[in-house]
Design a protein that fits this description.
The chain is mainly alpha-helical. The chain is 68% helix and 3% strand. It has a two-stranded parallel ribbon with strand order 1-2. The C terminus is likely disordered.
């Protein structure tokens, strides 16, 4: 069931980016999990700004591609504690697991093929707007 519109998804994306940036301080973990959070926060905010949907600024990344990347990030987040050996740090492990599941759920319920998103992206590339002279 695709109940999240591109606009609502955008608000969630910016909140997730902020959560990644704040999580080490809020939940008290450092080291590699902290670094991963900062990198993920910046990358997530950047991807959101570049996505062709209502809250994107540059509108370079098609919304369905954004969705595919988020699906991969959700899987990565769930696996990260074991991939990077911080599964024994409960605060970091639990944050990454919960965030991975949440990103996965958002991916499942977002309408990535919405006419609203594709119209915003498609409007930039209409052939009648291009001039080759």
């Amino acid at each position: 069931m695709k109940i999240l519109s591109p606009r609502v998804h955008g608000y969630i994306d910016y909140a997730v980016a902020a959560l990644f940036l704040l999580a080490p301080s809020l939940f008290g973990f450092g080291g590699l999990p902290e670094t991963l959070c900062y990198v993920l926060g910046v990358v997530h905010a950047g991807m959101t700004l570049l996505t062709a949907f209502p809250l994107g600024a540059a509108k370079l990344v098609p919304f369905p591609v954004h969705g595919g990347l988020e699906a991969a990030v959700g899987v990565f987040l769930v696996a990260a504690p074991w991939l990077f050996n911080f599964d024994e740090v409960p605060a970091a492990r639990n944050f990454f697991l919960a965030t991975g599941v949440a990103v996965g759920l958002v991916w499942l319920i977002t309408d990535y093929r919405s006419a609203y998103a594709s119209t915003a992206a498609g409007a930039r590339y209409r052939s009648e707007d291009r001039s080759f002279s």
